[in-house]
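User: Reviewer 2 asked us to show a designed sequence for the structure in our supplementary figure. I'm pasting the structure tokens here. Could you produce the per-position amino acids so we can include them in the response letter?
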């Protein structure tokens, strides 16, 4: 079953009927939440509502335009793509001096 894409900003300090919640006065007040393409719900808390709405607008915009990148996928390192990390020409670990910049003469 797939989850429908949706996004919203909610007040964590008050319930839907207007009464104070158990979190009233503690922690961040506003939570932005959205469902990504894989169906996972993502959330982030903010102190002010306009901060949460601005962040959420950016996320939704990137999803609509197709430029959204999952934060966990964005942290992939070159070594994970390379398969062998810092290896030299013949598969042996490269010395640390081989990786300095600018190159020494």
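Assistant: Here is a per-position design you can include in the supplement:
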């Amino acid at each position: 079953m797939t989850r429908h894409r949706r996004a919203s900003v909610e007040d964590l300090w008050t319930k839907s009927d207007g009464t104070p919640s158990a979190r009233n006065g503690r922690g961040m007040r506003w939570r932005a939440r959205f469902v990504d393409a894989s169906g996972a719900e993502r959330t982030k808390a903010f102190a002010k509502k306009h901060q949460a709405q601005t962040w959420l607008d950016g996320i939704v915009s990137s999803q609509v335009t197709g430029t959204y990148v999952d934060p966990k996928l964005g942290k992939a390192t070159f070594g994970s793509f390379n398969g062998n990390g810092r290896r030299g020409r013949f598969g042996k670990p490269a010395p640390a001096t081989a990786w300095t910049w600018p190159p020494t003469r």
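For the response letter, you might also mention the following. The beta strands are 7-11, 30-35, 41-46. The chain has one domain: 7-99.
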